[in-house]
Automatic annotation (TrEMBL):
Organism of derivation: Penicillium cataractarum
Origin superkingdom: Eukaryota
Lineage: Eukaryota, Fungi, Dikarya, Ascomycota, Pezizomycotina
PANTHER family assigned: LONG-CHAIN-ALCOHOL O-FATTY-ACYLTRANSFERASE 3-RELATED, WAX SYNTHASE DOMAIN-CONTAINING PROTEIN-RELATED
Gene Ontology BP annotations: lipid metabolic process
UniProt protein name: Wax synthase domain-containing protein
One GO cellular component term noted in the UniProt record for this chain: membrane
Key words, A-Z: Membrane, Transferase, Transmembrane, Transmembrane helix
C-alpha cells in the first residue's frame, strides 16, 4: 500500500498546517501595516516552494496538495498585503462570536480554506446555488433531523439539513471515485500503447497540421478532459472536504454550495470560465490583478484597457499556478503549455465581446433595454455559442493538455486504491453506468 499514497504525505499535511497557521495568526495578531506580514508571506512562500519540485511517481494526490499550498500563498498575499484584513475586520463579520479570539482565528482560517468566501462580504461572483434537490425535499419527503427542514429559507437562502447533505455528498462522491478509477485505467492503457512515453518537448512538439479526423479526435479528447475527468476530479475532492467539515460539525451545509455551475451556461468562453467552471481562484487572483492594474499601473477605471489588462493578469497568474503544478507532475517549465494555454483565453473573450458589440450596433431592435449579462439569449444564439465555445476549448486547450497526455502511464494516478484492477474495466463500467442513472434520479443531479 506504500505506493498508493505519497510517502511524505505526513510532511505535506504538516506543511499545509503551517502555511495555514502563519497567515491566519498574522491576520489576527498583527496590525494592518505590520512588517511581520511580509515575513509571514515570505515564510509561506518558502514552505510551499519546497514541494514545487519534480517527484518520481507523482500522483494527482500530490499535485492537489501542492495546488492547495500555492492557493494558500496567493490568499496570504491577497488578505495580508492587499486587502489588509485584521482582527477588527473579522470581529465585525462575526459579532456573535467576536468575544473569543479562538473563534476569530477559526473564522480567519476558513478564509484560506474557502477561497470563494461563501457567506462572507468577500463572496466571489457566480457561486452556484444549492441544488434544487434540497428544495424538493421540503415540498416532498423532507424530514427534520435537528438542523431544520430541507428547503426552509432563512434570509432568502435555502437551508440544508446536515443529514441530507452528507447522504447526497457521500453517495455522489463514491460514484465519482469509481468513474475516476475507470478513467485512470483507460488513461494508463492508452499511455502504455503509445510508443515511448514521457514528456518529450512538451507543447513545442505539438503537431498542428493533422487531418480533420485527427483534429476531431483531439478536440473530443480535450473536451472530455475538461467536462468529465477534470470536473469530476476537482468536484470529488471538494465533496470529500465538505463531508469532513460538515460531518465533524465545523461548518454548516450552507457554506458548501456546488463547486461547478451548469453546462447549459457554456455558450461563451467567458461564461465557461466565469460561471460554469469552479471559482476557487477568482478571489485571490482578481485581488492581485486589481492591485497590479489600479495601484501599480494606475490604469484609468473604468476603461477597456483596465478591464482587459485585469483579465490578462488573472489568466497569466492562473497559467503560472498551473505551470507550477505541472512541474510537480514531472513536466518542466519549458515544456508546460500553461503559460500559453491560459493567457490566450483573453483573445477568445475579446473576440466574443467584439462580436456581441457589433450585433448590438447592427441589430438594435433585438437588444432589450436594461438587459444584463444574465439574460438568456435566444436558442439559436446559444446554439451558435455552444459550437464556438466547444470548438475553442477543443483546439486551444491543446497548448496546456498535450504535455499532460504525454506523461508515462505510471504517473496517471487519479485514485489511491483501484477496483478496476480487481474487478475489471468492463464489469465496473457497467456497474458505474447503472449506478449513475440511479444516483442521478434519486438525488436530482444537475450537470
Amino acid at each position: 500500500m506504500s505506493h498508493l499514497l505519497p510517502p511524505d504525505l505526513p510532511h505535506y499535511l504538516l506543511t499545509i498546517t503551517l502555511t495555514l497557521l502563519l497567515p491566519t495568526t498574522s491576520l489576527i495578531l498583527t496590525p494592518k501595516t505590520s512588517p511581520l506580514r511580509y515575513i509571514a508571506l515570505a515564510l509561506t512562500t518558502y514552505l510551499a516552494s519546497r514541494f514545487i519540485t519534480p517527484t518520481p511517481g507523482a500522483s494527482v494526490i500530490r499535485t492537489t496538495l501542492c495546488g492547495q499550498l500555492i492557493l494558500i500563498t496567493a490568499q496570504t498575499a491577497h488578505f495580508l498585503l492587499i486587502r489588509r484584513l485584521d482582527d477588527r475586520d473579522i470581529a465585525r463579520e462575526i459579532p456573535h462570536r467576536a468575544f473569543f479570539r479562538s473563534d476569530r482565528l477559526w473564522y480567519a482560517a476558513e478564509l484560506f480554506v474557502q477561497p470563494r468566501g461563501v457567506g462572507t462580504p468577500r463572496e466571489v461572483k457566480n457561486v452556484p446555488a444549492h441544488p434544487g434537490y434540497y428544495a424538493s425535499r421540503r415540498s416532498g419527503t423532507g424530514t427534520k433531523d435537528g438542523d431544520g427542514k430541507d428547503g426552509d429559507r432563512k434570509d432568502g437562502a435555502i437551508t440544508v439539513s446536515r443529514g441530507t447533505f452528507l447522504t447526497r455528498q457521500f453517495t455522489i462522491f463514491i460514484w465519482q471515485y469509481l468513474v475516476l478509477d475507470i478513467m485512470q485505467a483507460a488513461a494508463r492503457q492508452q499511455a502504455f500503447e503509445r510508443a515511448g512515453g514521457g514528456v518529450s518537448g512538451g507543447f513545442t512538439h505539438i503537431n498542428w497540421f493533422i487531418s480533420a479526423e485527427k483534429w476531431v479526435e483531439r478536440g473530443l479528447t480535450n473536451l472530455i478532459t475538461w467536462f468529465v475527468m477534470t470536473r469530476i476530479l476537482i468536484d470529488s475532492n471538494y465533496r470529500l472536504v465538505s463531508i469532513i467539515f460538515v460531518g465533524l460539525g465545523w461548518d454548516g451545509p450552507e457554506k458548501w454550495p456546488p463547486a461547478f455551475g451548469r453546462m447549459r451556461d457554456v455558450y461563451t468562453v467567458r461564461k465557461f470560465w466565469g460561471k460554469f467552471w469552479h471559482q476557487f481562484l477568482r478571489g485571490p487572483l482578481t485581488g492581485i490583478s486589481n492591485f497590479v492594474t489600479r495601484d501599480v499601473l494606475h490604469l484609468p477605471r473604468p476603461s477597456i484597457l483596465e478591464r482587459y489588462t485585469n483579465m490578462f493578469v488573472v489568466f497569466l497568474l492562473s497559467g503560472i499556478m498551473h505551470a507550477l503544478t505541472d512541474r510537480v507532475q514531472n513536466i518542466p517549465f519549458e515544456y508546460s503549455g500553461a503559460l500559453i494555454g491560459f493567457p490566450i483565453t483573453l483573445l477568445a473573450i475579446m473576440f466574443e465581446d467584439g462580436v456581441q458589440e457589433l450585433w448590438k450596433r447592427f441589430n438594435p431592435s433585438t437588444t432589450k433595454k436594461g438587459s444584463s449579462d444574465d439574460d438568456v439569449p435566444p436558442l439559436w444564439q446559444r446554439a451558435v455559442g455552444y459550437v464556438w465555445t466547444l470548438t475553442w476549448l477543443g483546439v486551444a486547450s491543446t497548448w496546456y493538455l498535450y504535455p499532460i497526455y504525454e506523461l508515462p502511464g505510471e504517473l496517471t494516478m487519479l485514485v489511491p486504491v483501484s477496483l478496476t484492477e480487481r474487478v475489471g474495466m468492463q464489469p465496473l463500467a457497467g456497474i458505474v453506468l447503472g449506478a449513475g442513472l440511479v444516483v442521478g434520479y434519486l438525488f436530482k443531479v444537475e450537470i
